[in-house]
């Protein structure tokens, strides 16, 4: 028996995404036109789902991505604990070959089990997992059973690992795209199971 159903999406595209510039929690970038188009495509495909509440982070790109549902009058709430990981001094920095090499090195550290490792001034996966656990606990404790959550790419990977019981070393098995959808079902024992994985079929829907 399903006690809670979560539709989990990543925000739409921003110019930072388009240009390959690191965003993180310290960059409150808005959606670009393509991002708004992606949000509209998702809304058109899922506006028939009777969401009881919509959640987004403390950054505007997530709220903008679900604005269509908010305009329908669905109750909603911002949860800053679901914010993207902080990339510290690399936020707002273009991804040069040197920066990309450092990023890959960091991912290797994480996948090898060094989950306390963080970019200078940023957060580690362990810190993010604790923060996200607090945020999702707040959400799951609410009475609504069918909910929509809009988040960020790296934070989604960490959250999916937490909810599905994956070791954080393997969080990169969870792919993401702008406005990609995961659907999770929680049973009466509180265990989550995945129904949809990084789904983008709404982009192929007839206009």
UniProtKB/TrEMBL annotation:
Which top-level group of life is the source organism from? Bacteria
Q: Which UniProt keywords apply?
A: Hydrolase
Which biological process terms from the Gene Ontology are attached to this UniProt entry? negative regulation of glycolytic process; regulation of pentose-phosphate shunt
Q: Does the keyword Hydrolase apply?
A: yes
Question: Pfam families, per this entry?
Answer: His_Phos_1
Instruction: Name any one GO molecular function.
Output: fructose-2,6-bisphosphate 2-phosphatase activity
Report one GO cellular component: cytosol
Kindly give the InterPro entries that the UniProt entry links to this protein.
His_Pase_superF_clade-1, His_PPase_superfam, PG/BPGM_mutase_AS, Phosphoglycerate_Mutase
Q: Which PROSITE patterns match?
A: PG_MUTASE
Q: Does the keyword Hydrolase apply?
A: yes
- Tell me which SMART domains the record gives: PGAM
From the Swiss-Prot or TrEMBL record, give the protein name. Phosphatase
């Amino acid at each position: 028996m399903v006690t809670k159903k979560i539709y989990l999406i990543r925000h739409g595209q921003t110019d930072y995404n388009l240009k390959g510039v690191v965003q993180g929690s310290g960059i409150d970038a808005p959606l670009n036109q393509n991002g708004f188009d992606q949000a509209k495509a998702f809304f058109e495909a899922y506006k028939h789902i009777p969401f009881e509440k919509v959640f987004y982070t403390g950054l505007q790109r997530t709220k903008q991505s679900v604005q269509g549902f908010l305009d329908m009058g669905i109750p909603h709430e911002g949860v800053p604990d679901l914010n993207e990981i902080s990339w510290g001094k690399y936020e707002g920095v273009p991804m040069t070959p040197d920066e990309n090499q450092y990023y890959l090195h960091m991912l290797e550290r994480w996948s090898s089990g060094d989950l306390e490792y963080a970019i200078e001034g940023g957060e580690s996966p362990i810190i993010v997992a604790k923060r996200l656990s607090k945020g999702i606990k707040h959400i799951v404790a609410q009475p609504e059973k069918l909910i929509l959550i809009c988040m960020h790419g790296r934070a989604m990977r960490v959250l999916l690992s937490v909810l599905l019981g994956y070791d954080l070393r393997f969080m990169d098995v969870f792919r993401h795209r702008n406005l990609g959808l995961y659907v999770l079902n929680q049973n009466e024992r509180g265990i989550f199971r995945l129904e949809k994985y990084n789904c983008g079929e709404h982009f192929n829907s007839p206009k």
